[in-house]
Amino acid sequence: MAKIIKPYGDAMDDGKVQLSFTLPVPAGSRSMEAARRIALAWGFHEAEVVHMAPMSDEFTFFVVYAATSRGIDWDTVEGDRDDGEKPMSMDEINAFIRARIGRKIVVIGACTGFDAHTVGIDAIMNMKGYNHHYGLERYEMIDAHNLGAQIPNEKLIEYAETHRADAILVSQVVTQKDSHIHNLTEFMELLEAKGERGRFICIAGGPRISNKLAAKIGFDAGFGHGTYAEDVATFIVKKMAQERRT
Amino acid sequence: MTHNKLNLPGEKIDRARELAKNICAPVLDFIDVHTTVTVERATLRLLGVDGVSSVGVPVPNLIVDALSDKLGEGAAIWYSNALLQTGLDQSELDKRIARGFNIASLPMGDRARAQEYATRLAQRQFARIDANRAYREARLEEYRGNSHSPLLYLIVATGNIYEDVKQAQAAALAGADVIAVIRTTAQSLLDYVPFGSTTEGFGGTYATQENFRIMRRALDEVMEREKRYIYQTNYASGLCMPEIAAMGALERLDMMLNDSMYGILFRDINMYRTFVDQRFSRMINAYSGIIINTGEDNYLTTSDGFEKAYTVLASQFLNERFAYAAGLRPWQMGLGHAFEMDPSIENGVLYELAQAQMAREIFPEHPLKYMPPTKHMSGDIFRGLVMDSMFNFVSKATGQDIHLLGMLTEAIHTPFMMDRHIAVESALYVMNGVASIADEIEFKSDGLIVRRAHDVLDRTVNFMEEIGRIGLMESIERAMFADISRSRTGGKGFEGLVEKGENYFNPVESTLTRSLGLA
Fold this sequence. Notes:
Oligomer: heterodimer
Number of strands of chain B: 11
CATH superfamily of the largest domain in chain A: Cobalamin-binding domain
CATH architecture of the domain at 1-32 and 294-470 in chain B: Alpha-Beta Barrel
Strand content of chain A: 15-25%
Number of helices of chain A: 7
Strand order of the largest sheet of chain B: 7-6-5-4-3-2-10-9-8
Number of domains of chain A: 2
Structural class of chain A: alpha/beta
Helix content of chain A: 25-40%
Structural class of chain B: alpha/beta
Largest sheet of chain A: 5 strands, parallel
Largest interface: A-B, 30 and 38 residues
Strand content of chain B: 5-15%
């Protein structure tokens, strides 16, 4: 028996969702009806416009509650990563490195291209970390180098070569016009052109980066929203041990 | 409003200002005897030089590049010499330069005549800036009392100036007083200013003089309709600080992001270059009546908002000192700070309140620019809206002046039109609901808020004593600001630094120096 799931409002399978959106029309009873109709056109079987506000002469904001009869089979869904696999703690990771790798590992990270946002790479690498999760600089057995933002891919690779990196973290925050995909692809192509893809564990990160997206571009893993230094470190050290990179 | 609720010791504030003066003095001495490629290009722009080559190189760049080792004399005299020698008018000469004519190949004629001619060209552009300033002041007077307090500041960032215009007009109609067009993410590292209207940018829109003009027209339309002055803002930062300031002066921008050290720390631009550039850009801003916004919020997005609060105050003192040295008046110094503490800190909002009130009392005449939470915004838009609401409350309760509205979708995407609408609506609700709160509240004399403010001031003075001992540039090398280390000769743009020669001539600089009373 397939287990069909639907949104839950206040009763099982009522299918209730909340929506907010803008339409490029002036506010009025006609646009209110348009907002309801557009929700129905999306396949919702009931829709109620609970709020309408003009934002200019040409644009109107709506809040709509709607209900869907469509669900999906829970058993057919696969996540971006295995939810059963928990990351190790900082201490466990240090102990793991000592026991299984036997030396400090070198991790280089940067936000590449013209992207000026250090917030992602800082959250993973800086001593302080983010949201009470220490960054890699704090890890006794990790030699972490955070190069900051706006680092050209060539420079990052060069730096990784001279510092004998085990892993390279490439952060991308800006996604306008798919600039993150272009940057990550360019990084991978450069590395492959140099014949050095196998030399480093390559990890992509950023709020809009998924494991699937990263894998598609050729990275070993991708870490998106809600992941921390220990998630990244756990992946690196396990892969190193598995591939006997000691 | 009472400016003395925290009972901050005046002698400590005075000491911090004295330290700032000592810390900046050697840097200012260095600035005095140097120019840069962008200072010279800004000078040319303020002589009316304009245009671009067929491959997109601006005429000011062509001139400055051609002068190379003559740049120590200043670009102005070589430009006016070329006008005199060729007998061409300005637009003809600019077109010939754009097609490859090298003015450095002409012999230098009568220097006194060339200087006089250049001075006249500068006066023509200064007259235009004077008219812009007078126009702004007249409109501000006419619509006095119609702006929000604090001024509500919104950013648009589509990459396409024509799309920006639609969003900016909607934002202004919704209640924004200030519209900033954020720049494309690469622009701060370009050593030239692109030309013409643009429709392609990443995470923002190119700052060009034509884009400034297009946005100005659109905002003036809303101003007329709403009877409320709409401030236009851009970024006099990066490798072209003074040129952006010059373009802003010519197109009547009202505010400029303009920090004395931001480029060094956060864009890895060479420190000598930045110090020279910021001075000239600030002199232009001072003259044109622009309010600068400084970038202290960046310290807290990089380092911890609670522990590093003192670096913000120290930077404010230094920015203030550099601003005075460039002729800016306190009403033009939009010193920055931010609501960036970890939301899980117990009493975190009270600490924010303490720091915002502290900034208010230490800089009573300055239009403080208060930045919303960004670092701890997650994808949880509902919690984000609550955090923004607390920020709105603190801003109103402490009498901030320029209030950058937080976006509930911060960390998700560049704001949608409706995100801005929600931001304005919630700010207006909070600020209306507690309109008189700044007059109503006082603080317990030995309470947590007062103690926090005293503590931050103490740490600031100690920090500045240390900077005073080792020097500003050395302090930057030692990563004392934002945990970022920058070397003196490292970073971008160092090659664009030029020592002024004995016969250095710059009619724009001398006019600015004289009229700002800096001589």
